[in-house]
Amino acid sequence: MSPAHVLEPTYDALRRRLIAGDWPVGHRLEAARLAEQLGVSATPVRDALWRLAGERLVESTPGDGFRVPRLDAGDLRTIFAWHHRLMTMAIRWRGGPFPATDIPQGRDGIAERTALLFGAIAATAHNSELMRAVSQAAARLTPYRQIENDVFPDVERELGAIETLAGGASRSVLLEAIGAYHARRKASADRLAELAKSG
Q1: Is the model's pLDDT at 108 over the cut of 80?
Q2: Where would I find the H helices in the chain?
Q3: C-alpha neighbours within 13 Å on the C-beta side of residue 103
Q4: Structure pTM?
């Protein structure tokens, strides 16, 4: 195992690049090449890739190494359903009126905007385990969220409406909007998976 002072920055750098979508789905992640790019030996890169595989942000195949996961439509529907349940739990976690939520603005497109939006909503639960699960699901969905403009031409409007609701709407209205958001994506999972595969 690599020392923490080398492993942690290596892990953070690879995770950030995965979440930013620097590599397309199915891309082979070669430890030696990544080590050269990061200026470290291959050992902390392999250790970081194994950790990311444990988080299901990369997949490992014996004899083939590590790759950015390629999810099929069924996998996508399952992750969208899981994300929906997590968001429902977050919204219902605390009683009383839903607090007005300040949504940070991202600069890197739909995937980041969506992750920040749902992360901010989940943060209102003040539950670190729930936050971690939402973040993990968001990371796995990033490559598919990056191509949502090709499937949902109105995605900016849709996210804007949810952002407005997160600013102080009733919990039931916010839950309904988030349910509709996830239902659209589950219904379009075949198209999203196909686009990601061909992209």
Answers
A1: no
A2: 4-20, 31-38, 42-54, 73-92, 110-123, 128-145, 155-166, 171-187, 189-198
A3: 21
A4: 0.86
